[in-house]
Amino acid sequence: MMRNIFAEVEYEGTSYFGFQIQNKKDRREVTVQEVLEKALGRLFKEKIRIDYASRTDRGVHARAQAINFKVKTNIKTSQIKKALNSFLPSDIKIKVLKYLGCDFNARFKAQSNKYRYLIFRKKKPSVFWRNFTWHIDEPLDIEKMKKAAKALVGRRDFSLFARSAKDYKHCIRCVKDITFSQRDGLLYVDIEADAFLRNMARNIVSFLVKVGKGEFETGDVNAILEAKTSYVNKPAPAQGLYLYKVNYP
What we know:
Radius of gyration: 19 Å
Mean pLDDT: 93
CATH class of the largest domain: Alpha Beta
CATH architecture of the largest domain: 2-Layer Sandwich
Strand content: 25-35%
Helix content: 10-25%
Largest sheet: 10 strands, mixed
Distance between the termini: 26 Å
Number of domains: 2
Structural class: alpha+beta
Number of helices: 5
Number of strands: 10
CATH superfamily of the largest domain: Pseudouridine synthase I, catalytic domain, C-terminal subdomain
């Protein structure tokens, strides 16, 4: 029987050249998608391609990347999950696995994606957090960052926050919410949107940090989005970003 299988995948992106398989003849870089598909091929003895909710860049992590794939099988989902995890390296794990209807697609059925960014704010850097956070020891005005974030919420053209904006048909996206929380020397920035442009989440965080440092004012947001004010969109470091949740109906 042909089954449509959904899975939530957690991974540490440090050792991978992003999630999506790269088709570059001049170099060979390992991606998370490639590792997952090799594990599926090993289990089911056939080539299986997966659909996925979002692409993460090199060094970016995921708490709950959503994927689905179709295969002829009657194996129990608990056994599939156990077998796949035994084939996967220690930095990639299947958290949830279940059968869904054949019309489900992890990418096209997603209502929104949520990314979380971690900023390590203690004075001294930590070797234990170096691959998982952006270390900033300068003071940040969190209240100003919150005000600037509110101005970014809504349906807008985010061209200036995208990498290679010209590659998209349009750069209009709906940012549903941006929230902040702090504990144990970490600043958490959560961004939820209907979809993300490449580097959009990291560029938003980078801009908000500039606001927190006093390089931009909260009132500059609209002028920047309308390209009335110049803005150099150097993204926040990849290692602080996590694909945190994919929301479905």
